[in-house]
Amino acid sequence: MDARTYIEEHRGEFVAALKEWLAIPSVSADPDRHGDVRRSAEWLAAHLKGTGFPSVEVWETGGLPAVYAEWPAADPGAPTVLVYGHHDVQPADPAEEWETDPFTPVERGERLIGRGASDDKGQVLFHALGVRAGLAASGADAPPVTLKLLVEGEEESGSPHFADLLRSRRDRLGCDVVVVSDTTMWAADTPSMCVGMRGLTHCQIDLYGPERDLHSGTFGGAVPNPAAAMADLLSGLHDADGRIAVPGFYDDVVEIGEEERALIARLPFDEEEWLATASSGAASGEAGYSILERIWVRPTAEINGMWSGHTGAGGKTIVPKSAHAKLSFRLVPNQEPLRIQEHVRAYVASAVPAGIRAEVAFGGPGVRPCASDLSSEAVRAARAAMSRAFGTEVLYTREGGSGPEADLADILGAPLVFVAVGLDDDRIHAPNEKVEVPLLLKGAESAAYLWEGLAQRG
Amino acid sequence: MDARTYIEEHRGEFVAALKEWLAIPSVSADPDRHGDVRRSAEWLAAHLKGTGFPSVEVWETGGLPAVYAEWPAADPGAPTVLVYGHHDVQPADPAEEWETDPFTPVERGERLIGRGASDDKGQVLFHALGVRAGLAASGADAPPVTLKLLVEGEEESGSPHFADLLRSRRDRLGCDVVVVSDTTMWAADTPSMCVGMRGLTHCQIDLYGPERDLHSGTFGGAVPNPAAAMADLLSGLHDADGRIAVPGFYDDVVEIGEEERALIARLPFDEEEWLATASSGAASGEAGYSILERIWVRPTAEINGMWSGHTGAGGKTIVPKSAHAKLSFRLVPNQEPLRIQEHVRAYVASAVPAGIRAEVAFGGPGVRPCASDLSSEAVRAARAAMSRAFGTEVLYTREGGSGPEADLADILGAPLVFVAVGLDDDRIHAPNEKVEVPLLLKGAESAAYLWEGLAQRG
Ligand SMILES: [Zn+2]
Ligand SMILES: [Zn+2]
After folding, report:
1. I need a surface site. Which of A31, A215, B133, B353 has the fewest CB within 10 A?
2. Which residues of A touch B316 (CB under 8 A)?
């Protein structure tokens, strides 16, 4: 029996299992739901055992548990693949905007509606179906690669214990490639592979001027105004071409390659539709790059908030004593968040005038950007596997933000490949999350083909 | 008996009367004190009647009452002078910072401590002493000029009904010169005359971008950020020389004359001391002008407040949907607030990028700047009178902010002269307000000489 037929025949069983899992409200951000996150881990462990994984463990972390499962290949020389996903979900608020109960999954035609259906339980679960489909097709007792699944329980809370978990379990997690199943495709009829994610570092800048708010009649025009200094500093973040003017900021940026650029340009992008989704009256950004390139392969400096002086009703003729801003920087390979932090500190120091004191506080070490190596066997195998499953060419996309993916690549020292079948309109992190069941089945099929392909190439 | 001797002999009587008046808490900003403001008007009316003014009236306004007194010159061809002051006072908060009760005036050596001692009851009352001193010196029954006193009761509340009062009483208020006694001198040993005050107009600017806060990972770098647009707009308010870059802003600015500039430069200005008073680490401002020129004779564009996006704890990686700022513009002769408003509107419209919508709302018509004509007989006479009273040369100052003075000049069509003896360290509008009694006596003497001088020159 070929993999596709096996998958079609087991669709009902797969959906039933997924509905069972989705009914467990594993909201990691809600302390009242932490018991449910544990139940979710146990449910998954039991399911993977039932799938045939010979070794399944629930791993404790400093916070909520992860699930680890391993199925060795028969051939000890076969490559090892680590699949990453997460079993915790976003909160379901605002509750009143859900048309059905978020934790009572409902099928509507080809869709399954419920929190976590797309992000990420559906995409974790297709791997259980995929490995069985591969076995059905090959007639073997074990997958053609050594398969490891690591499914964390704190991704929607910023993965605070994930890097520690990777480090402490590094001996168990050794692998030749990491397959991430937690992203989206361009569209149901335009299958694509994510090949990179932007990193992030964010900070607060505080500028202090006079010790108290000054009367602008008495002092205005002769003392530096921290709000004006902040405006200059923030305005100076970009040049007239929309490039970031912080010295050194682009030092480590890898320019997008011609192959990727060409494939991105072939995506059926509709600017008007995109603007409507953004609810923005116009596009803007760095000269010389398309909208998709700006949000995927170019770094940003964004003002997330600012405040100074009088913000209430009416006027108050003061020179305010301080001004504050929150900035975030989206980073692309190979920008290092800590180096960017140094550049930003130096820029702020150079930008403040005499009489103004600046403080810059970063919110932690930041998130490193990550990308797949497009010339690698892993990417070629994954693209081939998805093309075979979908019956059409697979294009490339990236994502503008990211989770713990860079940690996986860095700590495990293995290349990243993204195999996922979510859609941008799945309403992940929003009310009425759904997933297209046929796409989950294509995901399972892609996985079955990918293990076969990697075994042949490895 | 000469005027100075008369004044010295009546010092005790003068201080006793002032203490009585200061005990009336005429706080116009406090509705609970409005009865006291009326009592204050009645006290002053009675006192001026006692001084000998043949005609004294309490004038009702849309708010709190003003006092009007008139004493015609014997010579019907003598000039007419209108003296302006106010009988309402600032609130006394914070009450706990007063060392004595604000409305129980206390003498400490040469000082009299109490709310209103300097601003402005002491300076109104010296005119009653001054006119009697002049009569004692001349032996006449009437002053050498027709003397009109207009003492309003809402100055510390922004004089909301004053312009209407001037317009409706214009027939009674006709005069050749307006003498304002509500300012300060440079120092007790450096007598000076204020010769101008800056005007004001203030606004709120609102910039609107996307219809909701956007996720900066998904959209950052490709949509215009209203906070960044605001930073650009605010940063563009000034050029590198600290000049205001709003087109047309300086069109009507009258450059300071050489005489005034030279006299200002002779003021014993201590930059370090000034910086300490400003609690600012440095001075700044428009290139080519001294600190005093920047705060007195040059216009400003000041950011009084701004806010946008996330201003709470931690980071929030959004492109905010809007950004807001409050600006005030100090104006100098002959800038018209309404024309400046047009220039600012045009600047904002030109400064916002595609995809951002701007709204600008001004807080009313604004306050016009005012200045004395330094070549006028009135200014020369006032300067000579003060020089004679103080026994030394009188320099020029200006004030960085203003009250209703421009209305007096405009509506009454008469030139302004400032004759006042407050000091910058009188702590007006602050706890422990005081006045130097010897300076009030010099004010009375200056007034006596000024009426004489104006009669001779007129
Ligand atoms: Zn996810
Ligand atoms: Zn005053």
Report:
1. A31
2. 304-305, 326
- Calculate the average pLDDT of chain A: 96
Same domain, B383 and B443: yes
Q: Which residue has the tokens 């463990």?
A: A57
Q: Mark whether A59 and A139 lie in a shared domain.
A: yes
Of B214, B298, B303, the CB nearest to A225: B303
Both structure tokens of A167: 């480090």
What is the distance between the alpha carbons of residues B173 and B165, in angstroms, rounded to a whole number? Answer: 10
Listed residues B308, B331, B362: the one ending a domain: B362
Cis-peptide, bond into residue B334, ω within 30° of zero:
yes
Q: Is A119 at the interface with chain B, CB within 8 A?
A: no
What is d(CA B332, CA A400) in angstroms, rounded to the nearest whole number?
50
Kindly report the CATH number assigned to the domain that includes residue A412: 3.40.630.10
CA distance A457 to B30: 86
Domain, as residue range, for B334: 199-253+299-362
ipTM value: 0.90
> Does residue A77 belong to any structural domain of this protein?
yes
pLDDT band at A458 (very low <50, low <70, confident <90, very high): low
Residue A421 lies in a domain: yes
What is the CATH classification number for the domain harbouring B211?
3.30.70.360
- Do A189 and A232 have their domain in common? no
With a cut of 70, which residues of chain B have pLDDT below it? 458
Task: Tell me which residue has tokens 């405009």.
Answer: B410
C-alpha R_g of chain B: 25
Rounded Cα distance, A365 and A363, in Å? 7
Residue A325 shares a structural domain with residue A245: yes
Is the confidence at residue A457, as pLDDT, over 80? no
**C-beta of residue B405 within 8 angstroms of C-beta of residue B166:** no
Shortest Cα distance from A212 to chain B (angstroms)? 7
* Location of structure tokens 């680890």: A68
Please tell me whether residue A36 adopts helix, strand or coil conformation: helix
With H, G, I as helix, E, B as strand and everything else as coil, classify residue A17.
helix
- Same domain, yes or no: A217 and A330: yes
How many other C-beta atoms can be found within 10 angstroms of the C-beta atom of residue A124?
24
List the structure tokens of B308: 């946008």
Instruction: Report the DSSP beta bridge partners of residue B193.
Output: B396
Residues of B in contact with A302 (CB under 8 A): 216, 220-221, 225, 228, 317, 319
Q: Which residues of chain B lie closer than 8 angstroms to A204, CB-CB?
A: 315
* Last residue in a domain, options A315, A340, A362: A362
